[in-house]
Amino acid sequence: SFELIAERSGRRFIVPPGKSPAQVLLDAGIDVPVSCEQGICGTCLCDVLEGTPDHRDLIQSDEEKASNKQIALCCSRSLTPVLRIDL
Ligand code: FES
Questions:
Q1: Could you tell me which of 15, 13, 16, 76 has the C-alpha nearest to residue 48?
Q2: Alpha-carbon distance 50 to 35, whole Å?
């Protein structure tokens, strides 16, 4: 699990191993744009402000993943204990 901080919403969450960040945010009533929920459409891409995503999407290139500027919230996780996103 890891801590997810939704910066603009001013809220923080624990994302358990079996859930995606998008699921946790949606369960809490935070509006996350999602479509395919399989990491292929890019709808759920969100800017990363702090932390390193564990990229599990297929939409970003290797270069984009290595830059760690965005995370696909429908499928990815975090390599760092805290991930702060622009949402
Ligand atoms: Fe399609 Fe996340 S909803 S990549």
A1: 76
A2: 25
In this prediction the pTM is 0.96
- Please state, as a whole number, how many other Cβ atoms lie within 10 Å of the Cβ of residue 9: 15
Write out pLDDT tens, residues 1-43: 999 999 999 999 999 999 999 999 999 999 999 999 999 999 9
Provide ipTM, 2 decimals.
0.99
Q: Which residue carries 């204990």 as its tokens?
A: 81
Q: Which residues line ligand 1 (CB under 6 A)?
A: 34-37, 39-44, 57, 59, 72, 74
Write out the DSSP string of 24-60: HHHHTT-----SSSSSSS-TTEEEEEES-EE---SSS
Pair 75, 54: CB distance under 8 Å: no
CA of 59 to the centre of ligand 1 (A): 8
